């Protein structure tokens, strides 16, 4: 964490005073290129579909997120029948766990900004 703060400080100083980039610091994904939003959405849709077999699914990227790492999920699935909202959310997070960086996954999703989850009878 300290090396990230140092990198940020040195990068800020180098851009403010036109100093050369600090090439001696280890590379970090903090400044790496952003994931493709369509790929992020399609990967999440695929994982949710595999686990929940939804009758309706819509995963969208946040409009104000240029990195494509924030998503909103709307899902209707029979597997939500009789479950409270927490249990439903846990099922969705289980489906996209690798995309959120769990178990050494890619971590292409930084946050789920919202979920609208329901069963077909609702």
From TrEMBL:
SUPFAM superfamilies: BolA-like. Pfam families: BolA. Residues 1-16 form the signal peptide. Keywords: Signal. InterPro entries: BolA (IPR002634), BolA-like_sf (IPR036065). GO terms for biological process: iron-sulfur cluster assembly. The keyword Acetylation does not apply. Belongs to the BolA/IbaG family. PANTHER family: PROTEIN BOLA4, CHLOROPLASTIC_MITOCHONDRIAL (PTHR46230:SF4), PTHR46230. This is BolA-like protein.
């Amino acid at each position: 964490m300290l090396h990230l703060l140092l990198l940020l400080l040195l990068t800020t100083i180098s851009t403010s005073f036109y100093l050369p980039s600090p090439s001696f610091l280890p590379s970090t994904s903090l400044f790496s290129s952003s994931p493709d939003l369509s790929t992020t959405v399609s990967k999440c849709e695929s994982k949710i579909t595999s686990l929940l077999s939804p009758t309706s699914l819509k995963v969208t990227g946040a409009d104000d997120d240029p990195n494509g790492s924030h998503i909103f999920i709307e899902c209707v699935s029979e597997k939500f029948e009789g479950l409270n909202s927490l249990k439903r959310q846990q099922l969705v997070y289980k489906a996209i766990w690798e995309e959120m960086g769990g178990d050494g996954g890619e971590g292409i999703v930084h946050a789920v900004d919202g979920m609208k989850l329901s069963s077909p009878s609702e």
